[in-house]
Amino acid sequence: MSFVKNVEKLKDLHSKGVDKFIQGDEKYTLFEYATGVGKSKQAIDCLKAFGTDKLPVILVYWEVAHKQNWLDEFEKWDDSGMIDKITLVTYASLMKHLGNRDVGSKYLMIFDEAHHMLMPTIWPDVDKYIDRAVLLTATMPPKRYSKILTRYRPLRIKYDIAKAINDSVLPEPKIWIVNSDLDNYTRSEIIEITKGPKQKLEKMETVVCNYGQHFTYLKGVKVIKLAVKATPFEKLTHLQQQVDYNEQIYYAQKQKWALVKWQRAGGARKQFIGDSKDYEIKSLVKKMSGKRGIIFCSSVAQADRIGSKAAVHSKIKTKERNERIEQFQEREIDTLYVNKMLVEGMNLVGIDYVIIAQLDKESLTMIQKMGRGMRSDFPEIFIIVLPNSADAVYLKKNIEALPQGSVDNLMNRDTP
Question: Residue 416: pLDDT band by 50, 70, 90 thresholds?
């Protein structure tokens, strides 16, 4: 049985959103809608009601690739030709565009992914050009959210993923926790450990030893360069020790350099945990063969390693990246392996499942990634977790942000 969307509820939501925008006295109106609820349509409906003859209209988007999304949305939801009267610009070019206009000019502006309004090139100069503004966001980190509220003081209209699922506007996702594991038998990893000044280390031969033996080599020497052979489990143990040690140093000294070292140690641990999940990712993609999915990889290297020509990340040239996304949109390929991209801002079509290789402490990031699959009738979300690691801490925090029904599913299942 397919999911039946509550269309009337969605129409009512958009209608009330238009009324609040038109009748409100606030300069800025912030629509906080879950992915799949129709932020773009809400903005277009507001523009229809306000009209394009009172003020010139500027629509601001983040990346060049997002422009086509907006052109498609106007083609879908508006047959009056409003798009021909609207100027579309990126955040990066907005102030340059406004700088070429007459002093005192006022606009109606639509800001997609509104957290980018905090860019130092945007605030506070943009405010003097705005008569009315529509701000759109699916999720926003708490610090940025607080700054948006403080600087722009918008009228806030919120409709989150839990509410959307409860109202049958979005389907309830099936969320699976997939436990990964670390080998503790084969010493396939190398841990590089150095002690002493760089100039002396450059002249030294590297000593190779097994994990556990390195403590003996390090004891009582001032200069040494080690290559320690370790199992994946042993390497993670070492990385965790580095995090704990640098945390102690930071709290003892409260110096910025100590904080940086602690953060770097945490980043190295997180990347190693994420990169250890290749097997689980490949197994899940194979299991979901015939369906379309987005795999949120833990690193650029992982996306390239598993995804190859289906990888999408910032290290790939924009033209080639857009070509790969277009292949997915045209259903020429069924999977995209992404890193720190496509979390929001693009309407990706026909996604049946999402794989999240690595959680972090920001639950909003997980919700954004889940949102990529929420347009499916039966969305499946796979979250890969390494037990007894930092993953467990992140998972507990992220669970609290999930819709209650999905939490029940999550707690009652282990692997698919």
Answer: very low
